[in-house]
Structures are given as C-alpha cells and as structure tokens.
Amino acid sequence: MASPASPPPVPGQDVYGPAGRSAWLTVDWRRHQRWRVVRGQIVNVIDLGPDPAASDGGPPLLFVHGLSGSWQNWLENLPAFARTRRVVAVDLPGFGASPMPRDDRITIPGYASLLAGLLDVLGIPSAVLVGNSMGGFIALELALSAPERVTALVLVASAGLDARAQRPERLLGTLRRAERLIVAGGAMIATHADAVARRARLRQATMHLAVRHPERLPNALMSEQIRQGNGKPGFVAAIDALTDHDIDSRLHAIACPTLVYWGREDRIVPVRDAARFVQLIPGSRAEILEDTGHMAMLERPARFNADVADFLASSARSPAV
C-alpha cells in the first residue's frame, strides 16, 4: 500500500514534541485517579472529562498503553480530548501502578476481558479504543470478542500481526530465568528517572527504541515515561502473551471505523504492518508520520490529537460512533 497523501499541515501541528507548555503539567491528576476493582482485579484508572455544557456528545475514549507502558503514555493527549469527551486511561495489570493479575498470568484475551469489565464498572456502554502497540492488540481483541463495546479504533503502531510466527522461544526462556534481575534493574532506572531524563546518553539508551528523537522531548515528559515504564512485574509475562495469540485471520470481522496510525521510523513494530492492517480490516485507513517512532502520540502530540479528532468527526455519521 502506498503511503497516504497527507493534507498540508496546520502551523504548529508537525513540530516534533509538545509545542509550548504542556497542558498536563497543570492538571491535578490526583483528582482524576481512581482505584477500581474489575472482576476481582485491582486496577489503577484515570478518569476525566468536560463540563457537561462543553461535551460534544460523543462516546468516551479509552486509552490503552503498550508493553512497558502506563497511563502516562497519554499525558499529551488526555487533556486535549477531555475538553469535549470523557476520557479514561488504565494501567494494565502488571504495569504502571496496577498489581499483577491474581494468578500472575497475562493473556491478550484476558486483558481484553478486563477492559470490558472496566467499561461495566465505569458505566460506559461502549467507547472509542485508542491503543498503542500491545494496547492496540488488546483493543483489536475486544473489538472482535465484544464488538458492541467498541465504537471505533485508533491503532497506534499496533502489535498483533504474525504473533506466533515471531515467538522467540529461546529469548523467552532467557527472560524468564533473568526475570528478577530485569525487574530489579528496571526499578533502579525508574527510581532515578529524573536524573536519567536529564542526561543525554542515559535518556538515549533508555528511550531510543520507543521514540525517534529522545533528545528533543521535554525532560518532564521523558521522566514520567522512564519512571512509570521500568521495573514492572508484567514485562516478561506480557512478551509471552504478545507472541501466543494469533489474530490475523479474524481481522476481516472488525466492523467499526478504524484509523491505523504509525511512525515511519518505528524501531519496534515495522511501518509495513500499517499496510497489512489496512488490507485486513475493512474500511480502515492509515496515517503515516515521517521522522516519527513508536509513540506518535508523544512525539507529535498536536498532529496526533488533530488527526484523531478529525477521524472521530468524519466517523460520526456512522451509527457506531
């Protein structure tokens, strides 16, 4: 698939990183943090939204992070969408502040079921799911297993294609044997997140796979990613889950509007997967950003927020959105 032609950028939208002072820095996030029990599992949730008079009436947005992620992956996006819609971001069990599942087992269908349960707990009949990497994989599974709960999908460098074919059995064995050291080492990095973010070489070493230009993103934003993403107990189990669940042959059943969103220089999930998702998901379309890595929502937040808002507006004619 040829890369889609992009319209001329709005001034300020195509800059790399946040433009000006980020809105998230002025939010008292403690007011919006909730502990919720979902099917017996304690989950950390961020839940915020507009004054009723400012609401556009659209369905809520549920943001789902990826491997080694947390709700803070969406810091540059939550305040923007909360002006007109209810927005929810979750720490998946084993990541962020959410503890591991009670049985220490992580699966993609299990995570999808948990999201459905979370929507129940929050009183949300259906939502737009915005998922990055593993979060996109989970969002796809929910759209297939409970399509009535998903009104639209935004897949940001989604994992999920050829999952079992890429299963690294030898690497998984090594990771399992070294799991305690991996978690302990990550926890040490997280403890010193501010210092790591301030030092160019350490920041580059920690974040270069996730973003194209770690040195061009604000220290505060990078510090939050490093602090919340490292040393979490779900890492190895989630890698196992990511490569133990195939979804390719079912994607033709996705019926909701779908935006496939990717950075051309993604070092984790190759941009060629965007074309395959568009081929496999009926009616989907892709947006490819140049000079951007795996986390377009943080790397080019103004562009991302505008593109997603346009997608939701253009999809509003569909009964599902």
UniProtKB/TrEMBL annotation:
Domain AB hydrolase-1: 59-301
A single cellular component GO annotation: membrane
Ranges in coiled-coil conformation: none
SUPFAM superfamilies membership: alpha/beta-Hydrolases
GO molecular function (one): catalytic activity
Pfam family, one: Abhydrolase_1
Record protein name field: Esterase/lipase
UniProt source species: Paraconexibacter sp. AEG42_29
